[in-house]
Design goal:
Distance between the termini: 96 Å
Shape: elongated
Order of helices and strands: HHHHHEEEHEHEHHHEE
Number of strands: 7
CATH topology of the largest domain: Nucleotidyltransferase, domain 5
CATH architecture of the largest domain: 2-Layer Sandwich
CATH superfamily of the largest domain: Ribonuclease H-like superfamily/Ribonuclease H
Structural class: alpha/beta
Radius of gyration: 29 Å
Helix content: 40-55%
Low-confidence stretches: 249-258
Mean pLDDT: 83
Strand order of the largest sheet: 3-2-1-4-5
Number of domains: 3
Number of helices: 10
Strand content: 15-25%
Length: 286
């Protein structure tokens, strides 16, 4: 046996002995606090350990060392610079200024073909406008867009490359201070939010009701759009409602703590002849 071998064995044994002695270490912070640190770091990619420590101390009264916070912050993927935002964050930051529009077709009981134009706001998922025509044109479409976008703060308009959206229409929209974004050819996913709401209109309204005339179609869509904006839950909002009536819809965290008491009654309001119902909680006075 050589002396170097004995020294190497001793050093390896010392490392094992020291690891065993220091095994208890400092007790970890509670699991809920660790999850909160990871959540704050994930939801706020621009924040560092100092900012998270100050947020915990000043807002929640929790004193945690920045070094401890750095230990439990999620690791950034390789090649991703510090503070870089995800696509979901980028889209949420710009969603309030984006409007999308598109046409879809509806057929009446007498097989008359009508074109329906819909405009939806990305941020709130609110249907801003709809209208029905049998002969769509660039002039008619431009007038519909002016009614909605003429006195608004929207910045972007998304539409496809249909011939209805002519060059003079885009120039008129640009004169309103907006930027027109055309989706690529044969790429409906580039206008996914508008395409999805059109599918919702079909699945929840037009697939179950046959319009008899243009006025009948218009009245059906008017009722359904009101239901969509003021009563229908949207998972993309948390869930939430684009235009909740004041004092009716409770936030999810409050709703989970409420229960139906003896004086509470659930009321239902029929929509479109019973195709849908809107529920609300009413208190019965003694």
């Amino acid at each position: 046996m050589r002396p170097e071998t004995l020294i190497r064995w001793h050093r390896a044994g010392w490392r094992l002995f020291w690891r065993y002695k220091s095994r208890p270490g400092r007790p970890p912070i509670p699991l809920e606090l660790r999850q909160l640190i990871r959540r704050m770091a994930t939801e706020n990619p621009l924040w560092g350990e100092e900012r998270i420590a100050n947020e915990l101390l000043l807002k929640l009264g929790l004193r945690v060392s920045p070094r401890t916070i750095r230990k439990y912050m999620p690791k950034r993927p390789p090649g991703r610079p510090r503070g870089d935002q995800r696509w979901s964050t980028f889209l949420r930051n710009h969603a309030q200024g984006i409007v999308a529009c598109d046409f879809f077709v509806s057929v009446t009981a007498t097989f008359r073909l009508f074109y329906v134009l819909v405009l939806i706001e990305h941020g709130s998922r609110r249907l801003l406008h709809f209208n029905v025509t049998q002969h769509p044109s660039a002039e008619w479409t431009l007038q519909q867009l002016r009614e909605v976008l003429g006195y608004s703060d929207f910045r972007y308009l998304i539409h496809d490359r249909d011939r209805i959206f002519a060059r003079n229409l885009d120039e008129s929209i640009k004169n309103l201070g907006m930027t027109v974004l055309k989706s690529p050819p044969h790429s409906p996913k580039a206008n996914a939010i508008c395409e999805r709401v059109i599918g919702t209109i079909r699945r929840e309204c037009l697939d179950w009701l046959i319009p008899l005339s243009e006025s009948h179609l218009r009245s059906m869509l008017k009722v359904w759009v009101t239901h969509y904006n003021e009563a229908r839950p949207h998972m993309a909002l948390g869930p939430g409602v684009p235009d909740p009536p004041a004092g009716v819809v409770l936030p999810a965290n409050e709703r989970s703590r409420h229960h139906l008491g003896a004086r509470a009654v659930v009321r239902a309001r029929s929509v479109l002849g019973g195709l849908h119902r809107e529920y609300s909680l009413a208190t019965v006075l003694a």
